[in-house]
TrEMBL record:
A GO cellular component entry from the record: 6-phosphofructokinase complex
Pfam families: PFK (PF00365)
UniProt catalytic activity: beta-D-fructose 6-phosphate + ATP = beta-D-fructose 1,6-bisphosphate + ADP + H(+)
SUPFAM superfamilies for the chain: Phosphofructokinase
Highest taxon listed in the record's lineage: Bacteria
Species of the source: Pseudidiomarina marina
Reported cofactor(s): Mg(2+)
InterPro entries associated with the record: ATP_PFK, ATP_PFK_prok-type, Phosphofructokinase_CS, Phosphofructokinase_dom, PKF_sf
A molecular function (GO) term: ATP binding
Enzyme Commission number, as recorded: 2.7.1.11
Subcellular location: Cytoplasm
Name of protein: 6-phosphofructokinase
PANTHER family: ATP-DEPENDENT 6-PHOSPHOFRUCTOKINASE (PTHR13697:SF4), PHOSPHOFRUCTOKINASE (PTHR13697)
């Protein structure tokens, strides 16, 4: 029987369990055995492994987190680590490894591929949606749903008090969560890493926008979505500055790791299921060093290296709509 390995690595993402389940069910379907390594690459180095059968994973897809645990493993960057991992995989008779994780985990997989002859398949598991070549990553839909839910709740209280709120969301290098949740919740403004590169936020410009919105619409709430790490000290510091320097009452709200928990959305469970099965089928096809992805509803395979060296841009139409049509202070182009 062919034996494959699987692990979850780096930041956990809702739907990782659904992906793991799909890998195990597909492997059994095709007559393979699955060995899971606990705690990501750390478990691969420490030989912390458990066999997984369908009975172990049947009812895990409704939970976020990962039943085989995830971890960061800084020493995996060393050559000796990759060699040790390769030896461990070989002595267990494993011929292919499925890595469920984000760009860091895929860099690790690529590093391992330099020292191991087995097949390596990536499954995109990250809330950030920042992997090239796939329309969505596992966990992104859930993170957006959670952020939207929080923004709706903030809106209720913000509206009652005609107040300004800054809601900090995850995605320090990619604004996908920020953009989609801002649109889904009708936020007045968003500060995303991609936009910051072109035109970094100044507090004066923000105050001007808040005041213009009030002039145009009358008093009301103003909710801003801020991706983490886009302002020194984040939402807390920015709201304090607004109050102290401009006498503008403002409240911060940090969503943090709440964005990674709770039941995964149907989209994430189904995406994870499809990609997990796809990963096993790519193994059967003899593929290696690719990520299982989805493009316009089709299963695709993306060279692992492309997933972090190339970038998916933010959706240009969503940006246009947010900035030009939904922005309360943009003048109409038609009179
Ligand atoms: P994510 O997969 O969520 O992006 P990290 O960036 O923390 O998470 O990466 C997860 C793990 O992948 C790291 O702790 C490390 O073990 C491994 N890794 C990341 N980058 C490299 C690299 N350049 N070489 C080898 N291993 C790496």
């Amino acid at each position: 029987k062919q034996r494959i390995g699987v692990l979850t690595s780096g930041g956990d993402a809702p739907g990782m369990n659904a992906a793991l389940r799909a890998v195990v069910l597909a492997a059994e379907h095709y007559g393979m055995e699955v060995m899971a390594f606990r705690h990501g690459y750390e478990g691969l180095l420490n030989n912390e492994h458990v066999p997984l059968k369908s009975a172990d994973v049947l009812h895990v897809l409704q939970y976020s987190g990962t039943i085989i645990k995830s971890a960061r493993c800084p020493r995996f960057k060393e050559v000796e680590s990759a060699q040790l991992a390769a030896n461990n995989l070989d002595s267990l008779g494993i011929s292919a490894l499925v890595v469920i994780g984000g760009d860091g985990s895929f860099r690790g997989a690529h590093h391992l591929s330099q020292y191991w002859k087995g097949q390596i398949i990536g499954v995109p598991g990250t809330i950030d949606n920042d992997l090239y070549g796939t329309d969505a990553t596992i966990g992104y839909s859930t993170a957006v749903a959670i952020a939207m839910d929080a923004l709706d709740k903030i809106r209720d209280t913000a509206d009652a008090m005609d107040r300004v709120f800054i809601v900090e969301v995850m995605g320090r290098h990619a604004g996908f969560i920020g953009l989609k949740s801002a649109m889904a919740a009708g936020a007045e403004r968003m500060i995303l890493p991609e936009l910051q590169k072109d035109k970094p936020l100044t507090i004066a410009a923000l105050v001007k926008h808040i005041k213009r919105v009030e002039e145009v619409r009358g008093a009301g709430s103003y909710v801003m979505v801020l991706s983490e790490h886009q302002w020194p000290g984040g939402a807390v510091a920015l709201s304090e500055q607004l109050e102290a320097e401009y006498n503008m009452p403002c409240r911060p709200c940090l969503l943090g790791h709440i964005q990674r928990g709770g039941p995964p959305t149907p989209s994430d469970r189904v995406l994870a299921s499809e990609l997990g099965v796809h990963a096993v089928e790519l193994i059967l096809q003899g593929k290696t060093e690719v990520m299982a992805g989805i493009k316009a509803g089709e299963m695709v395979e993306v060279p692992l290296v492309d997933t972090w060296t190339k970038k998916n841009p933010l959706d240009a139409n969503l940006l246009r709509i947010q900035h030009e049509i939904f922005n309360p202070v943009k003048k109409s182009t038609r009179s």
